[in-house]
Write a structure and sequence with these properties.
Layout (H helix, E strand, L loop, with lengths): L5 H10 L4 H8 L3 H8 L7 H15 L5 H4 L13 H11 L3 E6 L2 E7 H6 L19 E3 L5 H8 L5 E5 L2 E6 L1 H8 L1
Parallel strand pairs: 3-4
Antiparallel strand pairs: 1-2, 4-5
Helix pairs in contact: 2-3, 2-4
């Protein structure tokens, strides 16, 4: 991974016609810190550097956020719904999985693989809560595509949550569609 140098940051900022103060406001850091970084007087922490680079990318119009990727409205089932109802929703919408949501709050995911793993004759009659995967990952609508992509390396889907309410869902297909 190549990190930008102080000269790189200064050059990008001036190309975007941003003052140090404007960049500092966008990155939520102080103007003197921007000046010291650009002057080579201080090596910023990685988290600070990431905020500055994200602010520059956003100024360029190049940052894709979770709100730009998510599918909304969310088609979901409740934990008390039957697995049969969840399967009908997935088949009807062409989904391989759906979020499990109670009163807008995410509780898990249920997918075809979860249903197949239950080698029971009456699996369709079971409540979703007994079959669903409770391991879910959520992000705020402002999360970057990089953050969402990192989570998707370990999860089948990422739920977008705002004020405790599920407002969107993102899968690998959504990332691929955006990247291509």
């Amino acid at each position: 991974m190549d990190l930008p140098t102080s000269a790189d940051l200064r050059e990008r900022r001036t190309e975007l016609d941003l003052t140090q103060s404007e960049l500092a406001d966008r990155a939520d850091v102080s103007q003197p810190l921007i000046a010291r970084i650009e002057g080579g007087d201080v090596d910023p922490r990685l988290s600070t550097l990431r905020r500055i680079v994200n602010a520059l990318e956003e100024a360029e119009g190049g940052i894709v956020r979770a709100r730009d990727l998510m599918n909304s409205p969310v088609h979901s089932v409740e934990p008390d719904d039957s697995v049969h109802n969840a399967k009908e929703l997935m088949d009807g919408k062409g989904f391989s999985q759906v979020p499990v949501v109670r009163d807008g709050s995410p509780e898990g995911l249920i997918g075809n693989s979860d249903i197949r793993q239950r080698d029971e004759e009456n699996v369709g009659e079971l409540p979703v809560a007994e079959v669903m995967n409770e391991s879910i990952t959520t992000v705020e609508p402002d999360a970057t595509i990089d953050t969402v992509d990192d989570y998707l390396n370990h999860n089948a889907a990422v739920l977008v949550v705002e004020d405790g309410q599920t407002i969107g869902v993102i899968t690998e297909a959504d990332i691929a569609r955006t990247v291509s």
